[in-house]
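Dear colleagues,

I hope this message finds you well. In preparation for our joint manuscript, I am sending the DUF1264 domain-containing protein (Dyella dinghuensis) sequence together with its predicted structure, so that both groups work from identical material. I would be grateful if you could confirm receipt.
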Amino acid sequence: MTKRIAATLGFLLLVSLTPAMAQQFPIWESLLHNYGAKTDDTQVPSMKMGNHMQMSLKGTAQAGDEQRAGDIVAAAKRVLVRYADVDTALKDGYKPFHPSGKMGEEVHYSNYRYGRQEREHVNYDQPGSILYKRTPEGMQAVGVMYTAPQNATPEQLNAVAPLSIATWHRHVDFCGGPRSLPISEQYGPQAKFGPQGSIHTEEACKAAGGLWLPVVFGWMTHVYPNSKNPSEVWAGMDMHMHMDANTDSD
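The corresponding structure tokens are as follows:
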């Protein structure tokens, strides 16, 4: 995304909000609100994991599921080979999504153009996001993420990755804190606000003066094709959003 496009998008978001909202909430929270959903209701058989994660339940195995899943894993392996060097991903337009800079963290490097294309058609060899792990030797490509719209049906999710094998998830029910609060109160496991915060109902969010976000982003599924344990190939579900002094890290 160029600086001009980003600036235009930010302006459009500001004018689409009430003056009070524009003053209280950062642009990225407003963006999530506008591209999320009004409710976390879904047709997809699912369960809550903690307060802020909605996970698909395993579907009935269908003929061809194992073959399809194997083909997706093979494509993910090709992606990791092609983007083994994180600089290659950066040159291709992938950008780190709010890294913390902490050793061992998993960072989503996302290409928003490819991500938008996934809403219509998933190219398994060109995912919207590549997952890198921060190691002492540098960023190591460990997985990929494929996505589907937040209002996708079970049939749509199954068409991308079989529900009998893949684990799909959405990030739901968090309260964005007002701009006036320090970052430490808005993000992280000890905070009231944010994707890991203790607030997880609309009523509590309104009482705290926050911005209620029923659904943030669409459905996601992670693939770790090189996992030694087969049960961990489709096991990834975490997408913690960090906001601190190291958000510009690679």
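For the figure legend, we might mention the following. The CA atoms of residues 85 and 140 lie 8 Å apart. The radius of gyration is 18 Å.

With kind regards,
E.M.
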